Amino acid sequence: MKDREPHPTEAEIQAWIDDRLAPEARQRVDDWLAAHPEEAEAVLRMQRADRRLREYFGTLEDDPLPEHWQWLLEPSSRSRRWRKRAAFVLLPLTGFLLGWMLRGHGLGQRPDALENALLAPAAFAHGIYATDRQRPVELGAESCRKLARWVSDRMHADIVPPDLSAEGLAFIGGRLLPSTDRMAVQFLYEDAQGRRYSLYIRRQGRGWTGIGPRPAQRVEGTVRVAFWRQGEFAFALVGNDGMALQRIARLLQDGRSGACSLRQASLQAQGGLQKL
Amino acid sequence: MNLRRQLAQWIPHLRRHARGLVLDRELADDLVQETLLRALAREHQWQPDGNLRAWLFTLMHNLFVSDYRRRCRSPVVSVEELPEQASQGDADSECQLRDVSRALERLPPAWREVLLLVSIEGLSYEEVARVLGIPLGTVMSRLHRARRRLAECLEEERPRLEVVHERS
Description:
A: 18% strand; B: 168 residues; mainly alpha; Rna Polymerase Sigma Factor, Chain: A
């Protein structure tokens, strides 16, 4: 057993943090760290910081590609039909497939709080209620003000169902739902073809990573979820068409008026009630 | 398989790396777009059996250095200066996200590049040296300094108890 092992070099310490040292060298550094607790603490701090960095950045997002990039990646054919087909093939390949493959590779091996508390419940609730043709909502669009008052009371915030008519979506109604440790509200919409979208809103939770102010998307089973945060709330928009979700999400972020104002022109001052 | 189709699979990685470099999504997408354009413009230089990922990161590095480095967020703050107080009303998760992003801002771009390529993109040290055009020794010393400063910044900004995920 050697006494007085030399101080590991900076390079060795970094390789140790990255787990890229050969077993012998790793053992030497392990032993040295065990024998020098104060300096070991500095190394462990670096290791922890690195871990946080990887948690913040580690997963790949499957944001749809900006539309203006489509042309970059298709061959020089100029026909519109080609462009549409290329986009259709490209998005699922890069977004969905890549994300799906990478999920299995242990990038970000921690339990995914965002998944458990927002994405899965939103998708699940969509699956239950969006498919229900008889009673999809608790309170319908005709009781919009009552609905807004009810959810605002229970959620302790001023909440008005957003108006998505600019994207061709009619407001059907909403309900309250439990979401792990918090309450959530679900608003349901329908387009002219009868396809439904749900907007699921709850306060953000502890330890959530991977949710930002600009919408990202994930596939959850048979649906897609676009999700983002704004103020203290998290939003999950559920549907099937990724590009449509992105457009609707953008509309939600810019949107000002509520669906209730469509129903009752005599609604009192919108001022405070617009905030979500 | 031609270059265009291969490019598509690396786009999420390029976007992620760009976001770490310039710390702004829109600017990052600009950087990625220019990288793609440059790659396509130099298609004739591309060897089909070469390491495409490394080539793309090299193109991005050159663009970053020549143009984007000065456009990204980088407060001229030394680590000895007092950090901003975290505002009281923040939801915990927002605090956590901003901490890493703010800490990254405080790394000199040259260190940030090395750190991201090693930790996030998982390149080998030799690959990083080739992509950035620097000696291996420089890669390691920048990596060391980057992690040391990252640790200092993160510990400054989070006075509360950290939840550490133990490696088994």
